[in-house]
């Protein structure tokens, strides 16, 4: 993967129901270099960022997927799987992972077709298939038992499907600005996935508008950086449209009722967190999601945060997640027995 492609992956990824747009906070020293220096140093910067978070880069080949993932913490600790949106990458979680690796075994994969996880052009990127492939991945690295799962945006949908399909192995569930099919969803993007095409950067000047939609306070970036991002996003716009077309098809098949039935089967204790100023999936969806889940806590709503809390407020995310994780590790799987402490 070229440094310039990494810049795109780290500074702007689109995902709502299938896309996630994210803008990490680099130091100004890293950003305010010449374009040539920035491109040369970015890969090293990402390696340093992962190292700071206690993460190591790994790869594994499973069937027709060459998985790339980050792993950190002791393998003797409870496992935590962090899931990004389909057009994001594992580095979106680095800031949160920094707070988790001292206490947990953290795994963050690049999902198929994203980051450095490579698949064929005709790979099925639907949520059901990605969830099934993710299950094979966690089995291959031996972390499927008592797995704690967290998912942001579309990653939340994948985590929800996983917890529904593999209830005996899911210890806890954490959903952040989670995509779904909600009755109370009232943004243009959630009412009609076709509007996701408005988030495609297809011509110069689109980038500022898109960043303003997904973050409450988008960072100021150097002009050369924006131009570089736009150039790559424009080159990928055809593939992005194909992904959205798949979502549009799925939205015609599934309904709020079918989504509710699936969600109501989940037994795992669940934490829900939302950015109050989310313009992609409005915050009212958080209470609806809570009402569907058997063991969901009162949603955590972060003020002055948009669709990207894992980048806009990573320490706040960790501050809420760590106590929840500590509490849920003491609970038995409710399918095996009543939800009672182990000691």
Give an account of the 3D structure.
With 343 residues, the chain is α/β, with parallel strands linked by helices. It has a single domain, classed as Rossmann fold (3-Layer(aba) Sandwich). Helices cover 42% and strands 14% of the residues. The chain has 14 helices and eight strands. Strands 1-2-4-3-5-6-7-8 form an eight-stranded mixed β-sheet, with helices on both faces. The radius of gyration is 19 Å and the shape is globular.
List the defining traits of the structure above.
alpha/beta; single chain
What oligomeric state do these chains adopt?
single chain
Which whole number gives the mean pLDDT?
82
Number of helices: 14
Note the overall shape.
globular
Low-confidence stretches: 1-33, 37-41
The CATH homologous superfamily corresponds to Alpha/Beta hydrolase fold, catalytic domain
Q: Biggest sheet: strands side by side, in what order? A: 1-2-4-3-5-6-7-8
Based on CA atoms alone, the radius of gyration comes out at 19 Å
User: From the coordinates shown, what is the CATH architecture?
Assistant: 3-Layer(aba) Sandwich
Strand residues, percent? 5-15%
The helical percent reads 40-55%
Order of H and E elements: HHHEEEHEHEHEHHHHHEHEHH
User: End-to-end span in angstroms?
Assistant: 49 Å
The largest sheet, given as strand count, sense and whether it forms a barrel, is: 8 strands, mixed
**Count of DSSP strands:** 8
Q: CATH topology, anyone? A: Rossmann fold
CATH class, please?
A: Alpha Beta
| Computed structural class | alpha/beta
Whole-number count of domains: 1
Protein name: Alpha/beta hydrolase
Keywords: Hydrolase, Signal
GO molecular function: monoacylglycerol lipase activity
Domain AB hydrolase-1: 78-313
């Amino acid at each position: 993967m070229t440094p310039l492609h990494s810049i795109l992956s780290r500074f702007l990824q689109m995902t709502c129901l299938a896309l996630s747009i994210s803008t990490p906070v680099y130091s100004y020293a890293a950003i305010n270099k010449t374009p040539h220096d920035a491109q040369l140093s970015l890969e090293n910067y990402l390696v340093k960022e992962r190292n700071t978070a206690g993460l190591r880069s790994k790869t594994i080949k499973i069937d027709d997927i060459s998985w790339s993932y980050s792993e950190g913490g002791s393998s003797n600790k409870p496992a935590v799987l962090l899931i990004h949106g389909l057009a994001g990458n594992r580095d979106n979680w680095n800031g949160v992972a920094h707070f988790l690796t001292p206490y947990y075994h953290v795994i963050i994969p690049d999902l198929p077709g994203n980051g450095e996880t490579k698949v064929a052009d005709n790979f099925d990127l639907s949520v059901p298939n990605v969830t099934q492939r993710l299950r094979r991945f966690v089995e291959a690295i031996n972390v499927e038992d008592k797995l704690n799962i967290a998912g942001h945006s579309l990653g939340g949908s994948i985590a929800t499907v996983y917890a529904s399909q593999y209830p005996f192995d899911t210890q806890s569930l954490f959903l952040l600005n989670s995509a779904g099919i909600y009755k109370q969803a009232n943004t243009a993007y959630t009412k009609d996935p076709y509007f996701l095409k408005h988030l495609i950067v297809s011509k110069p000047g689109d980038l500022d508008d898109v960043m303003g939609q997904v973050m409450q306070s988008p960072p100021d970036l150097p002009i050369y950086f924006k131009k570089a991002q736009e150039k790559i996003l424009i080159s990928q716009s055809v593939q992005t449209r194909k992904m959205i077309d798949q979502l549009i098809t799925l939205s015609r098949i599934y309904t709020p009722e079918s989504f509710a039935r699936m969600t109501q089967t989940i037994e795992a204790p669940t934490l829900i967190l939302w950015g109050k100023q989310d313009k992609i999936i409005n915050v009212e969806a958080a209470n609806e999601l809570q009402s569907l889940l058997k063991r969901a806590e009162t949603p955590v709503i972060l003020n002055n945060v948009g669709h990207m809390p894992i980048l806009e407020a990573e320490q706040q995310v960790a501050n809420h997640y760590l106590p929840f994780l500590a509490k849920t590790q003491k609970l038995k799987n409710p399918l095996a027995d009543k939800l009672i402490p182990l000691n």
